[in-house]
Amino acid sequence: MEQIKETTWVQWLAVALGVAEVLLARINNIWLYPTGIAATLLSILLLMEVQLYAESALNVYYVVMSIYGWVHWIRRRDAPPVKITYSNKNEWLISLAISLGGWAVLYALLKNFTPSNVPVWDAFVSSTAWAGMWLLARRKMENWVFLNISNLFAIPLLFYKKLPMFAVLTVFLFVVAIFGYFEWKRQAEGSKLKAESL
Questions:
Q1: Angle of helix 53-75 relative to helix 32-49, nearest 10 degrees?
Q2: Who's near 63: CB < 8 A, 6+ residues apart?
Q3: What are residue 95's phi and psi, to 5 degrees?
Q4: Which stretch of DSSP H or E encloses residue 191?
Q5: Is 74 buried (19+), middle (13-18) or exposed (0-12) by CB count in 10 A?
Q6: What is the pLDDT of residues 126-177, one digit of tens each?
Q7: What SS3 string covers 3-38?
Q8: Residues 6 or more apart in contact with residue 65 via CB below 8 angstroms
Q9: Is residue 55 very low, low, confident or very high in pLDDT (cuts 50, 70, 90)?
Q10: Alpha-carbon dihedral angle through residues 144, 150, 153, 154, given to the nearest 10 degrees
Q11: Rounded CA gap, 55 and 75, in Å?
């Protein structure tokens, strides 16, 4: 409760924008991109203050991907969406390489070049999210698994770093990802049945 009282208006604003982004994404509204970019830029500032450097770098990646998504949305508005599919063996290997290799590289960087007091944890949360984002861009079902592994470890880390509203937002994202997984599964199986009936 004490952490909530000490929450700054910047953290409240970043969380409110993050929730708005998720809700806009749910209804497929293009305003999710500028809202998400604003939330992410504020998040970078807050994460740097508490020395979560890998999380900050991850958020820089989110900004770049949001700009890319915004431009891609405008250019391909009338094109059919990429189909949701399951990862093949090669994509699983790449995802695991991103997660485990990224974890090792980020840990080494955080341990040797920053004053981080949670290099193992920070590196793991970020590397699994990187893998999840790679799979999400390819519309692979397993993106939800990697993103929720990241979310699960991020929640206590954010409380530890006295960012309670970010932790609450991550709980929200965890729940959204569970529903996202089952919604994508329904769509993937529907597409498969449709293809088999043709």
A1: 170
A2: 37, 40, 41, 44
A3: -60, -45
A4: helix 164-197
A5: exposed
A6: 999 999 888 887 888 998 999 999 999 999 999 999 999 899 999 998 998 8
A7: HHHCCCHHHHHHHHHHHHHHHHHHCCCCCHHHHHHH
A8: 133, 137
A9: very high
A10: -110
A11: 30
Closest CA to 73 of 24, 39, 40: 24
Show the tokens assigned to 180: 């996202």
- Alpha-carbon distance of 133 to 98, in angstroms, equals 11
The tally of domains found in the chain comes to 1
**What secondary structure does DSSP assign to 91-115, as a single string?**
HHHHHHHHHHHHHHHHHHHHHHHS-
Q: What is the DSSP letter of 52?
A: -
185: Cα separation from own chain's centroid: 19
Contact 91, 136 (CB under 8 A): no
At 89, list the tokens.
């063996």
Residue 182: give the domain boundaries.
Answer: 2-197
Q: Which two tokens stand for residue 73?
A: 């949305």
Alpha-carbon span 181 to 179, nearest angstrom: 5
Instruction: Write down the residue that tokens 């900004």 correspond to.
Output: 63
99-127: pLDDT as tens digits? 999 999 999 999 999 999 999 999 999 99
